[in-house]
Specification:
Order of helices and strands of chain A: HHEHEEHEEH
Number of strands of chain A: 5
Strand content of chain A: 5-15%
Number of helices of chain B: 11
Distance between the termini of chain B: 43 Å
Low-confidence stretches of chain B: none
Shape of chain A: elongated
Largest interface: A-B, 16 and 13 residues
Strand order of the largest sheet of chain A: 2-3-5
Number of strands of chain B: 7
Mean pLDDT of chain B: 89
Helix content of chain B: 55-70%
Structural class of chain A: alpha+beta
Distance between the termini of chain A: 50 Å
Shape of chain B: globular
Helix content of chain A: 10-25%
Radius of gyration of chain A: 25 Å
Oligomer: heterodimer
Order of helices and strands of chain B: HHHEEHHHEEHHHEEEHH
Structural class of chain B: mainly alpha
Strand order of the largest sheet of chain B: 5-6-7
Low-confidence stretches of chain A: 179-198
Number of helices of chain A: 5
Strand content of chain B: 5-15%
């Protein structure tokens, strides 16, 4: 195998290493002083200045998530509140991790083929590939709850049942302009209002 | 006689407190400065009564953590030497501060106190001797752990430090030729003179190349990042693989104290030590004006200037540590034997030639 080589020979100036070291130190030094000044200005109350760090301090400050992010599943409901799912087993079949298990039963309405008696998703096995959402012919299973901190103390605790899946709500929709740190919408509990268009 | 002893003890206490404080604060500086350089926030969670004080309590929490952790000695290792090694390491690092002059003289009544623990005539030799003895702590630790990786780390450390000590020693010779003394206090006094009445005669102006070589060799001597081969986390973890709790903490602390020592030496030799530009024993003598100052203010300014210079060099070392990647082992050896040592010899010859012409 041919190992890819750098196209360009180093110049003499670069080979003596020291000027390049100084250049590197200038870059990191610039970051240091600019960020330090921004931190100090924020401490003094000048909040219009861009932040000195890109860090989100996680438990208190939740990073705004993209609406396309695949998070914990939920089951959509019909207008009367019953599950939209028709227990066709498409998601269970397509699931590469075998984490969905459905028990279906005959639906009283002749226009609806079946309904799920049980619908369990084992999040301990789920790989969050989103194939179930793609496969669903009824648009019944969705991964838009915005929940990603679902750790539990037991394996059983990782299994979501039909009732839980039906009770979950979609995450509020917030448009975050890319690469705009100043437009950080703040902690998630503080940004209610607009709801994701379904 | 008793008074003399008390004064020496007070001076020793002062310099050791300063060195240990610098070492402790550097653990915080290392985290925070790297964080600020990399657009992060850095450690800020340690709190007392909800007070965080920009993460300063992490120093305390680190100390508590290290003192309460299990102290582990390898079953086949040499227990005595394994315990002795980090102590040796930190002992020689702290010893060296005895020779560093941190101020001019302080007059109390009619007693004149030299602000230096030990005014040695061969202080430079003493410092280099102590620094090279510090290698024994590292080599012993690597050997007594009975672990091939730590042994390799210890061997790397000894090879690296022997190589760089040559450059370190030779890089200073140029400055020694100019100052004409091995006494550190005398060197600092020499740097208080002015050229043309207003340019301070600091070593860095007379020996810019010497300063650069001293700094590079010194960073290699303290085993910090571009030259941290003895530690090399990604390859061998190094001489402290088998160390835990405060024994490991002492090695870590030695690193920081050696950094402080290097900064103190570099500022003494090249940045004018405790000299403040245009500050004479009776006040400021600017080229355009004279500001008389009381004796105590002058002493405080001088000690403060010394600590400021040390802090600046520590900041610079941290900047270097968080900017440059680690060199390869063959590069490490090539840098010193092929480039730094010839350059430092050239520096000596040039300095000697210039002095021969001028004097």
């Amino acid at each position: 195998m041919r190992i890819p080589q750098s196209e360009r020979e180093l110049t003499w100036w670069e080979k003596i290493y020291l000027p390049e070291v100084v250049r590197g130190l200038a870059i990191t030094g610039r970051h240091f002083f600019v960020n330090l000044a921004r931190h100090v200005l924020h401490l003094l109350g000048f909040n219009k200045v861009p932040k000195g760090a890109v860090t989100f301090q996680y438990p208190e400050e939740v990073r705004p998530i993209s609406p396309r992010l695949r998070t914990v599943h939920r089951l959509a409901r019909r207008a009367d509140g019953s599950p939209r799912c028709v227990a066709c087993m498409m998601c269970e079949t397509v699931c590469p991790a075998n984490c969905i298990s459905i028990v279906g039963a005959e639906h009283p309405d002749p226009n609806i083929e079946k309904y799920p008696v049980r619908f369990d998703i084992d999040l301990g096995k789920c790989v969050f590939c989103g194939f179930c959402v793609e496969a669903c012919p009824e648009d019944a299973i969705r991964m838009d709850t915005g929940i990603y901190d679902f750790a539990a103390y037991t394996r059983e605790g990782m299994i979501l049942t039909l009732e839980t899946l039906l009770s979950l709500e979609p995450a509020p929709y917030v448009k975050v302009p890319p690469q705009d740190r100043a437009a950080d919408p703040g902690p998630i509990h503080a940004r209610k209002g607009t709801v994701a268009p379904l | 006689m008793v008074l003399e002893a008390v004064i020496v003890l007070l001076k020793a206490g002062f310099i050791i407190t300063v060195a240990l404080t610098f070492g402790a604060v550097l653990t915080w500086v290392e985290r925070k400065q790297s964080a600020v350089m990399q657009d992060r926030i850095g450690a800020n969670r340690a709190a007392i009564l909800g007070l965080r004080v920009i993460g300063l309590f992490h120093i305390l929490s680190d100390a508590i953590k290290m003192f309460t952790k299990e102290e582990f000695t390898p079953a086949r290792g040499d227990k005595f030497l394994h315990t002795l090694a980090p102590a040796l390491s930190i002992f020689f690092a702290l010893m060296t501060f005895a020779a560093i002059p941190f101020g001019d003289t302080l007059r109390v009544g009619n007693r004149v106190i030299d602000l230096q623990v030990a005014n040695l005539n061969a202080a430079v030799l003493f410092v280099f001797a102590m620094v090279s003895l510090g290698v024994y702590g590292v080599v012993l630790g690597g050997w007594a752990s009975e672990n091939n990786y730590s042994f390799l780390g210890g061997m790397r450390a000894s090879a690296q430090m022997i190589s760089y000590e040559v450059t370190l020693g030779v890089s200073v010779i140029g400055a020694l030729l100019i100052y004409g003394t091995l006494n550190l206090q005398e060197m600092v006094r020499y740097q208080g003179h002015m050229y043309a009445g207003w340019i301070p005669r600091w070593g860095i102006l007379l020996q810019p190349l010497g300063f650069l070589l001293f700094l590079v060799a010194g960073i290699a001597e303290t085993k910090r990042v571009p030259f941290d081969l003895p530690e090399g986390e990604s390859e061998i973890v190094g001489y402290w693989v088998e160390y835990s709790s405060m024994k490991w903490g002492m090695y870590m602390f030695t690193d920081f104290i050696e950094m402080t020592l290097l900064s103190a030496m570099a500022s003494t030799l090249f940045l004018g030590g405790w000299q403040v530009p245009w500050l004479m024993p009776d006040g400021f003598h600017f080229p355009w004006a004279t500001v008389p100052l009381p004796h105590l203010a002058v002493v405080v300014l001088q000690v403060g200037a010394f600590l400021l210079k040390v802090s600046f060099l520590l900041w610079l070392q941290m900047l270097i540590r968080w900017t440059l990647p680690r060199v390869r082992y063959d590069q490490l050896m090539a840098i010193t034997w092929k480039y730094l040592l010839p350059l430092s010899l050239l520096n000596v010859i040039l300095t000697a030639a210039v002095l021969l012409v001028l004097r």
